[in-house]
Every structure is written in C-alpha cells, then in structure tokens.
Amino acid sequence: MKSTMTLIPGRISVVIPAYNQEAYICDALSSLVRQKLGRWELEVLVVDDASDDQTAALVRSYQDQLPGLKLISLTENAGVSAARNAGLEQATGEYFTFLDPDDWYSPSTWKRWPNP
Q1: Half-sphere exposure of residue 13: CA atoms within 13 angstroms, side-chain side
Q2: End-to-end CA distance of the chain
Q3: pLDDT digits (tens, 9 = 90+) for 30-81
Q4: Bridging pattern class, strands 8-18 and 69-73
C-alpha cells in the first residue's frame, strides 16, 4: 500500500525494525537522544515486529526524551523487511534512514548536514 502522507521539510525519519531487541534497543535510542540536529527535526519510528520480550516497554520509556518517537506494533512477526516497510509507510520526513536496533549513530551524524 502506498503512503499518502505529506513529507515534512526539515524532518528526518529514522526507521528502526525491532524483534526481541531488549538487550540493544536502548543504545540505539540513546544515540538518537544525543544527536546535534541544528534545525533538523527527528522522527523516530520503531517497528516492534511482535517481540515477546520487553522491547516495546523500553521504547515507550524514551517518549519523553525523543518527542518524535512513535512505536508501531505488528501483531505477527513478519521479518525485518516487512518491519522496515511498515515504518516507511508511516514516515513523514523529507529524508529517511534505517537504524538497526543493535547499532547507533555518533552524536555528530547529522551535524554536518546543511540546515533545511
């Protein structure tokens, strides 16, 4: 299904597919909290691919620190590609990127980008 959402200039959408990632998801989210964005706005879409651990609860614990955080919960495990696609369908950023839940961005990842 093709998304009909309007893309918002100055926003970067980060899609994080996650299945049973309670051991790592906090590192990925913390790296986004530390970003120096300048005028960029961050939208973070974590797609919980029907985890049976505490991944979703840990993601929700970051909502105060990441105002653009959205948790998308899939009812059945569909795999990483389907989870990424589910996140892309809801992304509203002019730019998007993927971040695996066991990875992180350095604090200056987007500092070098020109201001929107």
Answers
A1: 25
A2: 29
A3: 999 998 887 889 999 999 999 999 999 999 999 999 999 999 999 999 999 9
A4: unpaired
Q: Which amino acid is it at 30?
A: S
Written as six digits, the tokens of 110 are 């987007």
In sequence order, which ranges of the chain are alpha helices (DSSP H)?
25-33, 55-60, 80-90
DSSP 64: T
pTM: 0.92
The total of other beta-carbon atoms located within 10 Å of residue 49's CB is: 23
Please give the DSSP secondary-structure letter assigned to residue 80: H
CA dist., res. 105 & res. 83, Å (int): 20
